[in-house]
Amino acid sequence: ISMRPTPRLDARALIHKSQRPHPRVMRPFADENASPAVMDEKPRSSSKRATPAVVRWTTTALPRDAELKRELHIPLGIVVNPLDRRAVCRRIARLKSPERIARCSSCYGYVSAHCRVNANGFRCCACGTYTLWRDAAKGSRYSKGLAAIQALPEISGETYEFDVAVETISDGKSEVETEEASETLEANDWRRRAVRNDASTAGTSRRNARAIVAIVDLNGAGEEYCELVKLALGSAMEALDGEDARFGVFTFRGDTLEAIDFSDVGAKDVQDVDGVRLKYFDSHANPRKHGFIRRVQDVVSSIGDVLTSLLTPTPGWKDVISDAIDDRIVGDMSTTDGRSEGRIFGPVLDEVLSFIEQAVDDGFISSARVLAFLRGGPSRGVGSCDVGRLSKSVADVLLHENARPTMEDFEFASREADSLMIPAHDHYESVGERCLIRGVEVDVVVTSDDFNDLTTLAPLAERSGGTFLLYPNAQNIPIVGDIYRLLRNEKAINATLRIRSTADLEIANAYGSLHADKAYPGLYHIASCATKDTFAFDFDYATSAGLEEDLNGGYPKIQLAFEYTCITRDVDRATGEVVVHRRRRRRIHSCRANIARSARDVYKHVDANAMMCVLARQALMTADEEGSTEARRALVDWFIAFSSAARKTSNTFEFVTDVVPRLVYGLLRSKILHPMGSHPDARVAARSRLLRFDADDSATYAYPELRAFEECNEGEENAIDGTNGSSSLFSKGRMPLRRQEVEAANGVLLIRGDDEVVVAYIGPEAVASCPPAHGSALDREIRRIREQSFEGTFLPRVTHVRLGGADDPSPVDAR
Questions:
Q1: pLDDT tens per residue, range 729-753
Q2: CA atoms of 720 and 707, how far apart (whole Å)
Q3: Is the pTM here over 0.85, yes or no?
Q4: DSSP string, 531-595
Q5: pLDDT value of position 369
Q6: Alpha-carbon distance 202 to 209, whole Å?
Q7: Which pLDDT tens digit goes with each residue over 136-172?
């Protein structure tokens, strides 16, 4: 079964939405505090709100009509995390065909826990159409009586998923072992031997393995950078442990492209192995004549010489590959830094992609992932970025933040920051779309302190479904662990998201790394989606009448259908080998909201973090289309209108007076909107990350958390932590992030941002407790933050700082 992207998908193949524990038991409105409860194995405290999985409404009590919605200025939207691990997802195993799952005959929505069912059929939760079971699905899945129907996963659960197609891409054995284990034919069995030989020569015995290809920029690379890249490539091979994946390495320096040839590695010393070297020529007057005279596939005798398998019968083969990489990736002894000669990343990428496409067409691999390690922006050949458009005078204003800038400097910085966010060309956007069609992901890893015009380069990763990583040119960057998590964590690729809702709700805008289908409304294409990636949607009322209780049965509903391709690793119990499958899956989720009785009901059920996440996406869209100045003005205007409406209706909840003001202030001062004090490339990286943050991470990005810890006496129980112990640090709770609070503090403070956790020890007694004791509240909090972030690519850096100590007031290295 081929898992390659298809040009067009059936729009009916996508649907889903729900959030209720049982299909026939509707919870009364009074039981819903802020949002529908999440089905969980552990009981939750009734005093705490349960964070909903998969879908978070900005408010679970929707305004009854459009007039009330306009008066309150609360955005009506949802934040969607399709692969949220907190969701209790029921998997339908051994499903013969996706057509066995019942679907509405009108809107093609899937049967779910919010549909009213009986022995003869079901009423769709989205459009209200009644469909008979015999018309809704093939087979006899729904013909065994009402009790059996109610016990099915798609009826009894909020979220369920099933496989559409499965193929084995690695069974833990190498290609040589597979051939040796094949059926042994007798010498006179000429008929079966001829059939096998014909299949081999015709190319029907195709390899399903994927390839990991690294492109390493060695222009101006020092020994420290080369060692980091070697360690990162080693972690990439470690992440592919047990998988019969193909691995290749390309390097370029100056006008030379080199590919490591693994055909003779192991047979002789790696220093005697000749690599594949190509020269780039751009001296011709016609730019179309520029490029490499020869192709990589024309130089090597076989594609397997460059793309080697990580599983071979040869003992220590990975060590041999590592030795070859150590020999080829060496520091640049020249005095140039790559900017004088120029980086030919554009031509190199085209050559590597042509080689990968040839390998896919020949059936040697089924898909590929490219890791591009760059020391700076491309500056020579096709795809060159405008790396020189940040002048020194502009940099002096943008990069050096002034506590009280003049109006002229601020306006000048705003204009220049907006101009630097405009791409120089759309070459990498086109290349990214080409990669998406061919099933190739491109991850861009940039290590540089200079301006590299990354706003032009970033669409390559965003369009192809890859990840954009930016690091300073330093020794302690976490590139090794990030590359490991990048390849090891579960990720959905070539995905589609279909949203269906009740008739009186319609999607107004969509935010995030997705693209709307031009033919089918509510259908969106997503290049890739990690477990923590989220998307935001704005809803509007279809008519001025707003929500009709008769039409919705008292509860507006939405349904999501998320179809994606993923790589799974399973252990064969019989052989103990790791079996790697490529699966095409479809996940269905349904949820509901309520119709508010009054303005107070709307405020009472607001999810502040979800609301601000939608507003942050709106600000990003405004900044892209009209500039950061208009985005800041629109955000301030909304905050004034929102605060005024809350005062008029006498709804002064805590989130109105405390949470929303600080999050709005944080957004206005963040890298994505504030023009001064941030590097333009850092702003591009921050924007790329914010587009994928969930609601809670977006709030942490806008406004970091400040918590204080204090020593607990022996035998004393901490009110917040709920534990008892001696000589340990316990939490005092969250503090306002104000300068006065920090200056007056004396003890231990923990400041959590989006990419760093700072632990400050203030005073001699606090310094003496550094580092925190194992098992203390502070130690558990640090571990909890890192464990939560381990599912993503970026692991926050932990820094311990001692202030006021008698022995050493300098910062301590991260634990």
A1: 666 777 878 777 777 777 888 888 8
A2: 12
A3: no
A4: TT--EEEEEEESSTT---HHHHTTS-EEEEEEEEEEEEEEE-TTT--EEEEEEEEEEEEEEE-EE
A5: 92
A6: 19
A7: 998 889 988 899 999 999 998 889 999 999 888 766 6
- Nearest Cα neighbor of 52 from 562, 737, 558 is 558
Question: CB count, 10 Å around CB of 45?
Answer: 7
The angle that helices 695-702 and 608-626 make with each other, rounded to 10 degrees, is 70
Q: Between helices 427-438 and 454-464, what is the axis angle to 10°? A: 20
Name 754's Cβ contacts closer than 8 Å, sequence gap at least 6.
689, 693, 697, 700, 701, 704, 796
State the Cα–Cα distance between residues 603 and 653, nearest whole angstrom: 8
The arithmetic mean of pLDDT across residues 435-447, rounded, is 90
Determine the 3-state secondary structure of 506 from DSSP: strand
* Tokens matching residue 513: 């790394």
Burial annotation 289-319 (CB, 10 A radius, 16+ → b, else e): ebbbeeebbeebeebbbbbbbbbbeeeebbe
- Mean of the per-residue pLDDT values for the chain? 80
Phi then psi dihedrals of residue 680, to 5 deg? -55, -40
Cα radius of gyration rounded to whole Å, the chain: 29
Over 16-69, what HEC string results? Answer: CCCCCCECCECCCHHHCCCCCCCCCCCCCCCCCCCCCCCEEECECEECCCHHHH
pLDDT of res. 5 = 41
From the number of C-beta atoms within 10 Å of its C-beta (0-12, 13-18, 19+), residue 518 rates as exposed
Which tens digit of pLDDT belongs to each residue from 644-678? 999 888 877 888 888 999 999 999 999 899 998 88
Q: At what angle do helices 223-239 and 317-328 cross, to 10 degrees?
A: 160
- CA atoms of 519 and 501, how far apart (whole Å): 18
CB-based contacts of 628-636 (< 8 A; 24+ apart in sequence): 628/414, 628/417, 628/418, 628/421, 628/672, 628/673, 628/675, 629/414, 629/418, 631/673, 632/668, 632/673, 635/664, 635/667, 635/668, 635/673, 636/664, 636/668
Among candidates 43, 73, 40, 84, which has minimal Cα distance to 697? 84
Tell me what the mean pLDDT of segment 596-614 comes to: 92
Question: CB neighbours of 168 closer than 8 A, spacing ≥ 6?
Answer: 208, 579, 580, 581, 582
Annotate 173-201 with three-state secondary structure. Answer: CCHHHHHHCCCCCCCCCHHHHHHHHHHHH
Is pLDDT above 70 for 805? no
Query: For residue 764, what are its two tokens?
Result: 């001699």
Q: Burial code of 87-106, b = ≥16 C-beta within 10 A, e = fewer?
A: bebbebeeeeebeebbbbbe
How far are the Cα atoms of 140, 497, 562 from residue 113, in angstroms, in the given order?
20, 19, 17
As to burial, measured by CB atoms within 10 angstroms (0-12 exposed, 13-18 middle, 19+ buried), residue 410 is middle
5's tokens: 């992207």
Relative to beta strand 367-374, strand 210-217 is parallel
Task: Examine the pLDDT at 182 and tell me if it is beyond 80.
Answer: no
Give the full edge-to-edge strand order of the sheet including 55-57: 55-57, 77-80, 535-541, 505-511
Is the C-alpha dihedral spanning 612, 614, 616, 618 positive or negative?
Answer: negative
Q: What is the pLDDT of residues 784-803, one digit of tens each?
A: 888 777 666 677 888 888 87
CA distances from 680 to 302, 325, 386, 672, 673 (A): 43, 33, 13, 9, 11
Alpha-carbon span 22 to 590, nearest angstrom: 12
The C-alpha atoms of residue 417 and residue 410 are separated, in whole angstroms, by 10
pLDDT of residue 6: 37
